[in-house]
Amino acid sequence: MEADGFQSPLLTERAINFLRDHYRNQATAQQPFFLFVGYTDTHKPHAKMPEDLVALYSEAAFRNVPSEAFARCHGKALSPVSDNPGIERAKRQQYYAAASSVDREVGKILDELERTGQLTNTVVVYTGDHGLNTGQHGLWEKGNATLPQNFLEESIRVPCLVSWPDGGIAQNLQSDLWVNHCDLFATLLEAARAVPEASLAKEINSPGESCVSFLRGKPEARRRDYAICEYGNARMYRSDERKLILRYPYKNTEFANELYDLSSDPRETVDLYAHAGGENSPVIKAMGSRLGEFFSHFTLPGHDGLDLEHEPLETPASPWLGRG
């Protein structure tokens, strides 16, 4: 089936029709459902957003975007900020309009849920799959904005809002818990009362932990103190104060490892890995060990970033290819 028009309203229309069909059918009206809607407005090229939304930011100062030079310790900037202020301003207007477009479309779906009387009884999750630089660090885009790939905070952090009043989720609860989408998966399973039995959970072998008890305002027993990422043939371990990036060879291409002290250098401008032989050596060894332990336990053989040569190529522009 072909459709013509701006993508997001078309996706919203499909989502609303799904909800109406679900509640119109007596066989499904009392049954749970799962609806995933993936909007792409905020992806590049950051252009051609609805004019009424672009106009909302005609006078915006964009003060939340710092003016920063690109730090060469991150390699080569593939998506640098333009030296033309007019181009940058127009691009940010488009990006902010894109975020507003997503907000508007999500609002339509929430309105439909409210019309059915099921809004407070529905687990609603608003999240994304990665962060984005809109001028931070002198860059646009995410981990693929540099050669080699980066793990800047703006690239790896994602928004996540959860609402479920009838499920006991506390209002206005904010947290600095270290969570990821594996945890979200486990959280949704518990909310749906679909937690797998121990044997199946062992087979799935997910590092995710449910956050339902915390969302309900109960004390959280666990306190993860790290974040782990993998992007292509690079892996990252982030603690409260430091970030270690280990890079592995791919064919004939190899890039340097990195270490940042986030307590003294939160904008990640000074790579300390070159001083690995000194005071940073124990830190690198300890963080690298924890990183290795994690992947040795949770890696699915043949499907990790260290076996890229035997996996489909993500894109000819993949940063680990050494092109740029």
Poorly predicted ranges: none
Rg over CA atoms, rounded to whole Å, is 22 Å
Question: How far apart lie the N and C ends?
Answer: 38 Å
Strand sequence of the main sheet, in spatial order? 7-8-9-10
Tell the overall outline.
globular
Biggest pleated sheet? 4 strands, antiparallel
Work out the helix count.
8
Helix percent reads 25-40%
What is the arithmetic mean of pLDDT? 93
Elements, N to C (H/E): HHEHEEEEHEHHHEEEEH
Structural class: alpha+beta
Total number of strands: 10
Strand content: 5-15%
Topology (SSEs and partners):
Layout: H1 7-24, H2 51-55, E1 76-77, H3 85-116, E2 124-127, E3 133-134, E4 140-141, E5 146-147, H4 153-156, E6 160-163, H5 181-191, H6 198-204, H7 212-215, E7 227-231, E8 234-238, E9 242-247, E10 258-261, H8 281-298
Antiparallel strand pairs: 1-5, 2-6, 3-4, 7-8, 8-9, 9-10
What does this structure look like?
By secondary structure, the protein is α+β, with helices and mostly antiparallel strands. Among the domains are: 7-117, no CATH class; 227-316, Arylsulfatase, C-terminal domain (2-Layer Sandwich), CATH 3.30.1120.10. The protein contains 8 helices and 10 strands. The chain has helices at residues 7-24, 51-55, 85-116, 153-156, 181-191, 198-204, 212-215, 281-298; strands at residues 76-77, 124-127, 133-134, 140-141, 146-147, 160-163, 227-231, 234-238, 242-247, 258-261. The chain has a 4-stranded antiparallel sheet, covered by helices on one side. Strands 1-5 form a two-stranded antiparallel sheet. Strand 3 and strand 4 form a beta hairpin. The longest helix has 32 residues, at 85-116. The protein is globular, with a radius of gyration of 22 Å. The two termini are 38 Å apart. The mean pLDDT is 93.
